[in-house]
Write a structure and sequence with these properties.
With 945 residues, the chain is α+β, with helices and mostly antiparallel strands.
């Protein structure tokens, strides 16, 4: 007899719907196998032929961490293009490189953790480079384009599975795992949720990653918003992946739960499906989940829900249908098309901020002095791949203008360090291969070790001249003549060994600390001082050598020398993405570091024809009055230098636009942890000052005229049309922007709000007819009185122009909406967080699973206003639900206190609420004002009688 072939299990049958196949596979898994799937590194189930799987492949602007790949501009640079179709093509190229790289290295994952849709609310945020814009509509438009490229265009099988980062209201690195963002309902719905919602609703998102921080007192990894909002926006299964180490933070740093079993169970029940914790070792998470099951904190049905969502993503990626997966054979990697796209993206990201007297573009025969700390650099960030093609602005200008017409001065201070014995630090000659950090790829680049194959520094009578750069805050780098940076490896020796500063803990930064008649040299990465020993220079646990800084040449002198002889000076300034403003570290100021300010002054003094090119991950404030021309570009990846040179030469007319406001001074900024964009008058939406450069700003080598604006309300939308004409003499792109504004609002509304935009290419004399359809929902706001969105009747301005402040055309339409209704406080009372106005308060968690309460900041005093409260024919009693200790005082319309309710002794805990009552007399419609005194939490105010 011939043995029968076992039947194909349903989960292997490509003719069946994914849902039936997932259910079949899920039923075959044991509880232990299901638990194993919930760690980032899900093991294989060999008995079923199911392969291992990992979530998380960084791909923010190219494939990161896995070795050489095409490197596109930083995300904030892609945002500056204002070009969705371009960004979609970038996402398409990145997803193809993911597939091609995975074909030769199965460590490369298909679940990509990108893009970042956190809004660039505050320019001092250390991770500004990772977001697209301060505006939720522009952010969602660019993010949607990128996710569509990452997903691919096959109707069934996804090329990669994008996960949006970082849910939610996450704009600070300072204390990021313990700070809470207080987000009032209007800000939540009109600002922070909006970028996520519109991107998810577009249909190319596989999941989200919660952020490290807390929102309204509750960690994002146990946020009820995952269920209440995220999962209602799409019928697709969304895979929620924790951020690295965040599940442990719930106990270890946040102390939100007493045990890891409680914390892990609460995360899973809230919606987390994949736990990124303890690296590749899943045993700790597995043990916690097993413990939660044994303690009755979870059921197998809870596990099934999360495993189902993971399997849904894996089926969409074609894992179980290799013969049908159209993406399986992709080999597109570092192709000519990808290189050209990287250059196109870098060119479109360049923003011309100022160009007095048409100094730019430069004439072809210009004698150019190129100076500055970034002039001969091509910087990468934490989420960059390893460069295959690398060039610097200087090299790009050599190529474009000819080396004979370009002079260079970096502007570093050239120094030697003399010891107390009279000798100098010396970099020994080394015969070792050059190494680029991360060239081999690493699942966790934070674990990459420093080099120990090079000899440590020594001392000798003459020493080595080092290039010193002060990046601000007294943070220094020291570079040897061969280009290697001084660094400290695990053995504690100081070597000239790093190609660039970098790593999770940067080992290439130092600080000179005045001491006696010299300086101690502090190595920041280890927190130890540099000492001189018989076997070499090292960092010491105690003591440290006293050095004298001997300056051979000041950077300003070198800059002055070349600037005086040039027709035009180009100062290339900006940041190193690993220093003073990065993941784990916020900036402290908008100012350029003092050393770069000195170089800029030296250039400007020596030559009035000075152009400033800022290459940075975030905005700066500079004094523009003495500079005829200023440009900005984010770190532009492998093609940044060519792009900058082509823009300066006029081969390309710049058309990038600022994706966030550039403020004039630090004093224009709110506190970093003030997330109330409405009350704090933040971003271009609400800022009432004069920015250095406004949102949407960017100049061109052409000029454009706007005309023929018309608008009509029809079929649930506002239809807007206008024309844009190139009135210049070069072909150029224009980014036409359409803003809306409620002309007579009943509540604070944005000064203007981006409703639509379009980037168009126009030849001289050419006209584009632009039309936009704005749904009436675009004019709504979140009405706290009704707990939902509402379109307010009245006039709305439509503003068309070249930036948020350069408005060329305007008209007004009348919209019919829903009338305002007073708060029905007799029926619903007042949820404490639904205030119209507040001072001195913050929103906190009502319970660990759901709800909000309000408390005075620091346990002091807070005031809350609730407008238009309808008491009907009259009330005789007020009740408050409170926890903690303190006083609640109620008044109407700013009058005297009608009731004072006191918690004389503290409740047993912050979630132990009690109800207090007092008699009052009120009828009709009034504004209610609540004053809180002391460390108490107010959850709800009720009225009866």
């Amino acid at each position: 007899m011939t043995a029968q072939t076992p039947p194909t299990p349903p989960f292997r049958d490509p003719q069946l719907p994914f849902a039936k196949r997932i259910d079949d596979l899920l039923a075959r898994l044991t509880p232990d196998e299901k638990i194993g799937f919930l760690h980032q590194y899900a093991p294989a189930v060999e008995r079923l032929g199911v392969a291992a799987f990992r979530t998380g492949q960084e791909a923010l602007h190219g494939v990161a961490w896995m070795g050489p790949a095409t490197v596109f501009p930083q995300a904030v640079g892609l945002g500056a293009t204002w070009n969705e179709e371009l960004v979609r093509r970038v996402g398409d190229a990145v997803s193809k490189e993911v597939r091609a790289m995975r074909a030769r290295d199965d460590r490369v994952g298909l679940n990509v953790w990108a893009p970042t849709v956190n809004l660039l609310r505050h320019p001092l945020w250390g991770r500004n480079e990772e977001g697209y814009s301060e505006d939720p509509r522009l952010t969602s438009a660019i993010a949607t384009a990128y996710t569509r490229g990452l997903r691919g265009d096959h109707p069934t099988y996804w090329r990669t599975a994008p996960v949006l980062k970082h849910w939610l209201a996450h704009n600070n690195e300072t204390g990021r795992d313990i700070t809470s963002s207080s987000v009032r309902p209007r800000v939540l719905h009109e600002y922070d949720l909006r970028a996520f919602r519109e991107t998810v609703e577009a249909g190319a998102v596989a999941g989200v990653m919660p952020a490290y921080n807390l929102v309204n007192g509750r960690p994002n990894h146990v946020s009820p918003y995952l269920r209440e909002h995220l999962r209602t926006w799409t019928d697709e299964d969304l895979l929620v992946c924790s951020d690295a180490g965040a599940p442990s933070n719930l106990v270890d740093s946040e102390h939100y739960f007493d045990t890891h079993e409680e914390a892990t169970a609460a995360s899973l029940l809230a919606g987390v499906d994949s736990f990124t914790d303890h690296g590749t070792d899943g045993s700790t998470i597995v043990a916690r989940l097993q413990g939660a099951l044994e303690q009755g904190l979870l059921t197998e049905a809870d596990l099934n829900a999360s495993v189902h969502r993971q399997l849904s993503v894996r089926f969409r990626l074609g894992e179980f249908d290799p013969a049908h997966d159209p993406n399986a054979g992709i080999e597109d990697f570092d192709t000519p098309a990808h290189r050209a796209l990287a250059q196109e993206a870098a060119e479109q990201a360049v923003v011309l901020l100022k160009n007095d007297g048409d100094l730019l573009p430069l004439a072809h025969d210009t004698r150019l002095a190129v100076v500055g700390l970034l002039a001969d650099e091509c910087k990468l960030d934490w989420y960059s791949g390893t460069l295959i093609h690398r060039s610097t602005p200087l090299e790009g200008l050599y190529e474009r203008f000819g080396a004979e017409r370009v002079e260079f001065a970096e502007g570093v201070d050239r120094v030697r360090l003399r010891t107390s014995q009279g000798t100098f630090l010396n970099v020994p000659l080394a015969d070792a291969e050059d190494e680029v950090r991360g060239a081999e790829g690493a699942l966790d680049p934070a674990l990459l070790a420093g080099r120990t194959d090079l000899p440590p520094l020594t001392t000798d009578p003459t020493g080595t001249e080092l290039a010193l750069v002060d990046w601000g805050e007294g943070v220094l780098t020291l570079r040897a003549p061969d280009g290697r940076y001084l660094s400290v490896a695990e053995d504690g020796y100081v070597r000239a060994s790093a190609d660039q500063p970098g790593g999770w803990v940067v080992q290439e930064t130092f600080r000179l600390e005045p001491h006696e008649n010299g300086h101690l040299l502090l190595h920041i990465g280890t927190g130890r001082h540099v000492s001189v020993a018989a076997d070499g220079v090292k960092v010491a646990e105690e003591g440290g050598e006293i050095f004298e800084l001997v300056v051979a040449e000041r950077g300003e002198d070198a800059v002055t020398r070349v600037a005086e002889a040039a027709d035009v000076v180009l100062v290339v300034a900006g940041n190193d993405p690993h220093i003073n403003g990065r993941e784990t570290e916020d900036r402290t100021t908008l100012q350029l570091p003092p050393q770069q300010q000195r170089l800029l002054r030296a250039a400007r003094t020596a030559n009035p024809n000075t152009v400033l090119a800022l290459v940075s991950a975030y905005p700066y404030t500079v004094e523009p009055s003495g500079l005829p021309a200023i440009l900005w570009t984010a770190h532009g990846g492998q093609a940044a230098s060519t792009a900058l040179a082509r823009v300066l030469a006029g081969d390309v007319s710049p058309a990038g636009r600022l994706p966030q406001t550039w403020y004039a001074a630090d004093t224009d900024l709110p506190e970093l942890l003030n997330y109330d964009v409405i009350g704090g008058r933040q971003t271009y939406l609400y800022f009432e000052g004069t920015p250095l450069f406004p949102f949407g700003h960017g100049l061109s080598y052409a000029s454009f005229a706007y005309g023929d604006l018309s608008a009509r309300v029809e079929l649930g939308a506002v239809h807007v049309e206008f024309t844009v004409t190139n009135t210049g003499d070069v072909t150029a792109d224009e980014v036409a922007q359409l803003y809306t504004r409620a002309a007579d609002p009943s509540v604070p509304r944005p000064r203007r709000e981006l409703a639509a935009h379009r980037r168009v290419t126009l030849a001289p004399g050419e006209t584009a007819d632009l039309s936009f359809q704005l749904p009436l929902s675009a004019f709504e706001f979140w009405d706290v009185a009704r707990g939902g969105r509402r379109l307010e009747s009245g006039p709305y301005d439509l503003l068309a122009g070249a930036s948020s402040e350069d408005i060329r055309l305007r008209t007004t339409v009348m919209l019919d909406g829903e009338p305002a209704a007073p708060r029905a406080v007799l029926q619903h009372g007042l949820p404490a967080a639904d205030f119209d106005k507040q001072s001195g308060s913050e929103i906190v968690d009502r319970t660990k699973t759901a709800g909000d309460a309000v408390t005075p900041v620091g346990g002091e005093t807070a005031e809350l206003t609730y407008r238009h409260c309808d008491f009907g024919a009259g009330v005789t009693e007020v009740t408050v639900q409170v926890a903690g200790e303190g006083v609640v005082e109620l008044s109407l319309d700013g009058g005297p206190a009608l009731a004072e309710l006191t918690l004389p002794t503290p409740t047993s805990g912050p979630y132990d609420y009690t109800t207090l009552g007092a008699g009052i007399v009120a009828e009709g419609v009034h504004d209610v004002r609540i004053r809180l005194r002391g460390p108490l939490r107010l959850a709800h105010v009720g009225f009866s009688g």
